[in-house]
Amino acid sequence: MKVFNKIVDLQSELDQCRKEGKEIGLVPTMGALHEGHASLVKRSVKENGATVVSVFLNPTQFNDKGDLDRYPRTLDADCKLVEACGADYVFAPSVEEVYPTPDTRHFEFPPVSTVMEGAKRPGHFNGVCQVVSRLFDIVNPTRAYFGEKDWQQIAVIKQLVKFMGSSVKIVECPIIRDEDGLAKSSRNTLLAADERAIAPAIFKALKASVEYAKDHSVKETHDKVVNEINAVDGLEVEYFQIVDGDSLQDVASWDESGYVVGCITVYCGKTPIRLIDHIKYKG
After folding, report:
1. pTM for the complete prediction?
2. Which of 37, 124, 222, 278 is catalytic?
């Protein structure tokens, strides 16, 4: 496995791959890799002749500098995990390499980019689109792999691909969870032991709500999930929205859509750490 820090060096290597007829898979990450990322890398390795894993902590998608400062940085361990998964290349550029000049482009794809995370974290999805569009331009991948835990992000990136007129195929990969149900996340490493112990209550409430929803209204289901999680000392729901899976707009009844998803963000602990998850009700 080779590690590149410079765009020109990576592109030279990938040009050779293309001459050899290889399709190229890209797994964009911000580092602090875990089993969820590993599942993306392994799938890319299986489906492409060459796999690039980018490890880049993108500053433009953080609207909270404290959140950026706290984000774990573990490049050496990340490279070992990626190599063990069979990837060919790690691209770990500096901020200056990705953004040689300030990126002033503005991306907005309402309604999918302006609700939930888009509303709670102003500028977040603009930053995501900035870095993903840069990576697509740099790597020119055949396929790009994203985890469904960042479910709204995938919807935004699909809109970005259409806007760019790109031929890259977006591959959605299932959430990887710990045995107790907590979705794998780089942020989990920031949880203290007592915080980690209560975090699984998020998915427990979501999972139980699927059965509950069969004979209760959307509002009743929403309130049940919020109340159950908020009843756990140390957890506080920032938002829980039950939405159409395509438009991401709230639904008032289960009959409004054939594709309904519940999306949640919860603050865990005293710091606190912001955890996201979702559950599918229909579709």
Report:
1. 0.94
2. 37
